[in-house]
Design brief:
single chain, alpha+beta, Methane Monooxygenase Hydroxylase, Chain G, domain 1, six-stranded mixed β-sheet, four-stranded antiparallel β-sheet, 7 helices, elongated
Length: 366
């Protein structure tokens, strides 16, 4: 490399320096822009999960209480989480749920509760007690499947909150309010492959439906129900899944960079390797994008990996063609070789910089 640089003019050296600066500047700009973008998405996710379990963030208010208004203490024990499917936007869970209240046992909250945004797959009454002093208790074991729109912007280094939302099917907030039982818990056996479950939370919030349902008792007001929400937070265990996705991109770009070490006159071999690298990136993008919903409509980490790899291969092929022109048509073999080396080191530095900074900006280590 040093001998090659000694055989080119000062003007040509200046041009090579400008070329290196432009390439590095492109990658540096992408690193800053996409790094800040992913960092902001990560912060927004944290705020969203916090607000979801914050009763002060509820906009709705309970309607005036009816004379037969009852408070029902509600609790749960999460036993298992199954079938977490980002591509299908759903998950399943097994849990115990119990109700205790004073007064009319005909209120029967255990028979009337429902899963909002999901369904009860099985439901079994495991215990019930009704005392003469008006104390009532019911406990059910249920299996549920819930819909979940996963945020895939940071997919492969992301975190999620799974929510199980429970309401009474009949009694709105004027007749029944849930109260959280502090005896709720999560089993230590709860595991989600690829994720680390970090937190189990619960809260009761008013949930407003933007409709009166034409109920004669609504008096023109939207229906508001007391909603018991369970929040299960989980995060990727480490970067291993990210590296499984990133490695084929890295190898495709690496294969492309080999082009710049072949003889400039071998233009067919150069463009052939460049084309193979390009289609390698496309093939990997097709595979990894099948892991997320097809119509998610979000631009995220997977797209950045694909974009940066495609840009790198494009720059490599463009440089190979320009190098061939310098070697064959302009008859400047020393400049051609020097140009190849400058482009190689510039792309290698820029691509590795982006690839190393991006996951640090994306991953939330909690």
């Amino acid at each position: 490399m040093q001998e090659t640089l000694m055989n080119i003019t000062k003007k040509q050296k200046k041009g090579l320096i400008i070329c290196a600066i432009i390439i590095v500047a492109i990658y540096l700009g992408m690193t800053v822009y996409f790094g800040l973008f992913m960092s902001n998405v990560r912060k927004t996710s944290v705020i969203d999960h916090k607000n979801r379990m914050d009763v002060t963030q509820a906009e709705a208010q309970y309607p005036p209480k009816k004379p037969d208004f009852t408070e029902v203490k509600i609790g749960s024990y999460l036993e298992n989480i199954r079938n977490v499917s980002i591509a299908d936007s759903s998950f399943s869970a097994d849990l115990y749920i119990w109700f205790s209240w004073q007064g009319n046992k005909e209120l029967n909250p255990g028979d009337l509760f429902q899963i909002v945004g999901g369904k009860i797959d099985s439901k079994e009454l495991s215990s019930e007690h009704y005392s003469d002093d008006g104390s009532n208790y019911q406990r059910y074991k249920i299996s549920i499947t819930a819909d979940k729109v996963y945020n895939t912007t940071r997919f492969s280094l992301e975190d999620h909150m799974l929510n199980i939302l429970i309401e009474d099917k009949k009694n709105d907030g004027a007749a029944l309010n849930y109260v959280v039982d502090d005896k709720s818990a999560m089993s230590s056996r709860v595991k989600v492959p690829g994720y680390r479950v970090t937190k189990f939370e619960e809260v009761v919030k008013p949930h407003e439906y933007k409709s009166t349902f034409s109920s004669p008792n609504a008096k023109g007001q939207y229906r508001v129900f007391s909603q018991y929400a369970i929040g299960i937070s989980m995060i990727r265990t480490d970067w291993s899944f990210y590296f499984k996705i990133f490695l084929p991109y890295l190898l495709s770009v690496g294969l492309g960079l080999v082009v710049l070490w072949t003889k400039p006159e071998l233009i067919d071999a150069r463009t052939g390797l460049g084309g193979a690298s390009f289609f390698g990136v496309i093939a990997n993008a097709y595979v990894v994008n099948s892991l997320v919903p097809a119509n998610s409509g979000t631009f995220g980490l997977l797209d950045i990996l694909t974009l940066s790899a495609l840009l790198s291969v494009f720059l490599i092929v463009a440089a190979a063609i320009l190098s061939y022109n310098l070697y064959q048509k302009q008859e400047k073999p020393e400049l051609s070789v020097a140009f190849d080396r400058v482009v190689f080191y510039s792309i290698t530095f820029g691509y590795l910089l982006l690839s190393l900074v991006l996951p640090f900006c994306t991953y939330l280590n909690v």
